[in-house]
Amino acid sequence: MNKSNRVLVCAFLVIVVKICTISATCSDTIMSQMQSIFVQNFTQNRALAPLCLRGAFHDCWNGCNGALLLAEEISRSENIGLEPLKTYLDPFLNQFPCVSVADLINSCAVTAVKFLGGPDVPVTFGRIDTGVPDPNGLLPAGTLNVQELIAAFQPIGFDSKEIVTLSGAHCVGVCQGQPFCPGQNTTFGNHYYTQLLNGEFEGKLQTDMDLLQDNTMKSVVQQYATDQQQFFDDFATTLGKYISRIQCNQTSNGPCPLDNSGSSSSQSSTSNSSPPQTAGNTPPSSGGINNPQEFPPFGLPNSFEGPNSFPSSSQGQNGNPTTSSGNNFFPAFI
Ligand SMILES: *[C@@H]1O[C@H](CO)[C@@H](O)[C@H](O)[C@H]1NC(C)=O
Ligand SMILES: *[C@@H]1O[C@H](CO)[C@@H](O)[C@H](O)[C@H]1NC(C)=O
Ligand SMILES: *[C@@H]1O[C@H](CO)[C@@H](O)[C@H](O)[C@H]1NC(C)=O
């Protein structure tokens, strides 16, 4: 084969690979069909909605990669309470073979936020499943103090304001049988923040109450308590950013934005008429591999690895790992 033929063959292979990528992503129509089934199911069983939201937090902490629904990962203590999510979502994978697990979880999550009365969270589809469990024990525990919480989110590119914003997800759902926001846990709203300011700590985690210990974070709590629209706007942006962090593959050393250069469909969670949106970040025009400028490096220090290990409250980041009781920052919603 001469040199120019080799170039042609290589170009052809690249195109075939690209087509395979495209066919692995569902059309907008299919994604909409799926979302309407989610809505039917949430209508029957409202508690499924916060379950999907929690699932997205867990699957995407280390980059959205679908590993959460692997038997080995779902059964970890940090995922206590999420087994029903696997039971719920697995049948969709047979019914819609085009969907990746990571897209399925995130489609369910943004539909859930909207269903519960929250904002349209921008979501783009085209996530690739790794098929390999994430390292154990990466998720932050609900028992962290505020400095530890900030330190846990920093490596994945979220600042203290964004932690306050994401914590607002605790306006819905229950933790180990008790609602975070007693009496108000069934609709999305800013009541989580008003309850914190009113000292209504029933159902709250250490990580919730401690938001008041940091002046910057407390001022954000106060802002959201008086301005629900601001909370909704920020939540849409911040959750959108969170769920757009993907791992291209196991060996890539950081998150990468979704490749939006033709292979991914893109839509807002409910409104099909709105223009395609991405999560506040413009994907690169090609590749979609690591873009450390937009997505700071992630992957946590080695001290976070090991079975469900987090620094205990009396130790710094490099303290000996302790075993969490499953009382994590993204706790059980059953
Ligand atoms: C979800 O809704 C679909 C369509 O109505 C239904 O076939 C399916 O059984 C529901 N799933 C659950 C878990 O309720
Ligand atoms: C709200 O809390 C109750 C328990 O008080 C629980 O049964 C219900 O499923 C929760 N609803 C949601 C949407 O989480
Ligand atoms: C995975 O990412 C690494 C590093 O970016 C790259 O060298 C490798 O070719 C990728 N593998 C696949 C299967 O895409």
Automatic annotation (TrEMBL):
Catalysed reaction, written as an equation: 2 a phenolic donor + H2O2 = 2 a phenolic radical donor + 2 H2O
Keywords, in A-Z order: Heme, Iron, Metal-binding, Oxidoreductase, Peroxidase, Signal
Location of the Plant heme peroxidase family profile domain: 34-241
Cofactor: heme b; Ca(2+)
GO molecular function per UniProt: heme binding; lactoperoxidase activity; metal ion binding
Family: Belongs to the peroxidase family.
SUPFAM superfamilies: Heme-dependent peroxidases
InterPro entries per the UniProt record, alphabetical: Ccp1-like (IPR044831), Haem_peroxidase (IPR002016), Haem_peroxidase_sf (IPR010255), Peroxidase_pln (IPR000823)
Bias kind Polar residues: ranges: 279-293, 305-328
Compositionally biased tracts (Low complexity): 260-278
Annotated protein name in UniProt: Plant heme peroxidase family profile domain-containing protein
GO biological process: cellular response to oxidative stress; hydrogen peroxide catabolic process; response to reactive oxygen species
Signal peptide coordinates: 1-24
Region of interest: Disordered: 253-334
